[in-house]
Write a structure and sequence with these properties.
By secondary structure, this protein is of the alpha/beta class. The protein is built from 10 helices and 13 strands. The protein has a 9-stranded mixed β-sheet with strand order 5-6-4-3-2-1-11-12-13, with helices on both faces. The relative contact order is 0.17.
Length: about 290
């Protein structure tokens, strides 16, 4: 088990690790994180920055961080909000539950009513609103129950839906949303209707803020994900890592990168494997960053 003795020490290089959560950092079915928190802490101690980049809500990620006793920066709801603690010398003016707000996109209350009406009038047979499903269905589809389900339902920037129709209707629905300046994103279990954010734009935004702070000398970016809604993130980093999962056999083909790392194991071990391999790769190419 050479993960524990992995050396994350890089001279004058800060690695930003943007990571998806479900099916990547934690197992999709058991929600088990393995030894990944220890690895994340080790990265942190070597002045690297781990940033969760997930479709989970603000409340879900806060609750997870509380459970793990961590306070890593995070991007929630597929790019809807970006929050951080202790990565700049000063915190931002606006904060939320102890985290500085770096960015928030259009809030759901600006478009919720009109979209729900649109769905009920014109797309009733194509799409189910998550909020309209009975509690059993919500629980079964999300794999969550009780408090966890409540936290997942409290959304700030996106409407959760289940798509149940064909591709041509999907395209129609997409263009209706586009007229309202909105997007639909296919996630692992659900689709998300939101303004035009995605995981890639958030990576770029975060990176710009880090660079303009001038606090870090040289920066290398790593992205770790397991499904199609991670593609924008993986296309916008120096090293793209894919954790093996049952729904991503063709994901590797879609990534536009010269530096791709993929794991043999599923999450959570696959995540540790990606970290291990990507650091070996960075170390072997360290002279290039000189």
């Amino acid at each position: 088990d050479n993960i524990n003795i992995m050396n994350f020490d890089l001279k004058e290089i800060t690695v930003l690790i943007f990571t998806d959560i479900d099916g990547t950092f934690i197992n999709n079915d058991t929600f088990n994180e393995g030894g990944n928190i220890e690895i994340a802490e080790m990265l942190n101690n070597h002045r690297h920055i781990l940033i969760y980049n997930s479709s989970k809500t603000f409340h879900e990620i806060i609750s997870m961080q509380n459970r793990f006793k961590t306070s890593f920066p995070f991007i929630c709801e597929t790019g809807g909000g970006i929050y951080y603690k202790n990565i700049f010398d000063n915190d931002s003016v606006r904060s939320r539950e102890g985290y500085s707000i770096m960015y928030e996109s259009m809030k759901i209350d600006k478009f919720e009513e009109i979209i729900k009406k649109e769905i009920r009038n014109n797309f009733k047979n194509d799409v189910d609103l998550f909020d309209d499903l009975c509690i059993d269905d919500r629980s079964r589809l999300s794999g969550l129950s009780g408090t966890d389900l409540d936290l997942a339902s409290k959304r700030d920037f996106s409407i959760l839906v289940r798509w149940k129709s064909d591709e041509s209707r999907y395209t129609q629905f997409e263009s209706v949303l586009e007229n309202y300046g909105l997007n639909i994103i296919k996630g692992g279990r659900f689709c998300h209707i939101c303004s035009s954010q995605d995981k890639g734009k958030s990576v770029m935004y975060f990176l710009d803020q880090i660079k303009s702070s001038r606090k870090y000398d040289r920066i290398i970016t790593v992205g770790i994900g397991d499904s199609t809604n991670d593609i924008e993130m993986l296309n916008n980093v120096d090293y793209a890592c894919v954790v093996k999962s049952k729904n991503n056999s063709n994901l590797l083909k879609k990534i536009d990168s010269n530096n791709i790392v993929s794991s043999i194991n599923h999450a959570p071990e696959g995540w540790a494997e990606c970290i291990h391999n990507v650091f070996s790769k960075i170390k072997s190419q360290e002279h290039l960053y000189g």
